[in-house]
Amino acid sequence: MTRRRARSLSVLETRLIRCRDCERLVEWREQIGRVKRAAFADQTYWARPVPGFGDPRAKILILGLAPAAHGANRTGRMFTGDRSGDWLYRALHETGFASQPESISRDDGLALTGVWVTSMVKCAPPDNKPTTAERDACHPWVDDELRLLTEVRVIVALGGFGWDGALRLLRDRGHVVKPRPKFSHGVELKIGPYTLLGSYHPSQQNTFTGRLTRPMLRDVFTRAAELV
Length: 228
Fold this sequence. Notes:
Number of strands: 6
CATH architecture: 3-Layer(aba) Sandwich
Number of domains: 1
Largest sheet: 6 strands, mixed
Strand content: 5-15%
Strand order of the largest sheet: 1-3-2-4-6-5
Distance between the termini: 36 Å
């Protein structure tokens, strides 16, 4: 679907949360919202596309994969209400970007300074694995976000999916790197006016195994702070 470019982040959010383009994702996010997890049985799930969150004047953009089924798909805010978010917002708090170390709900008072948090895919996918077509369908939303976040100069890509998405966003702006740079934790690349930083995703798969430690994640945002 061809979309008109949004003139502001608020307009973009209003349009995004009404999106029903991907039938599989719509069915899954709404099913999760009906069935729920036992621990959240008394809560009303968001069960819609999840918009980005943070400071409209952000100099740092954080790119994740997609909303978690019982995290952002429940709360309506990226990395909120799940263990990945516990790690991310604690690191942002420790490096001066977040007003508090945890993100529980959309109305918990959390404020971000200098940072915008978003995802390449806006709806929770089954098994946390969007298809290529779903990724491509969501790409214009993220592209619009970056266009409207005019002060961004550092992009922190969480995981290989975020890394590939960031490279596509930069390619769309005429900034192509050959050979295509490989993702790894701590990798840093200057691409056009942007610096791209790679970090392992703070998923339980990485944090429970020790592949990603709290100091490792904190160091990524310490470096991002230095760059801006």
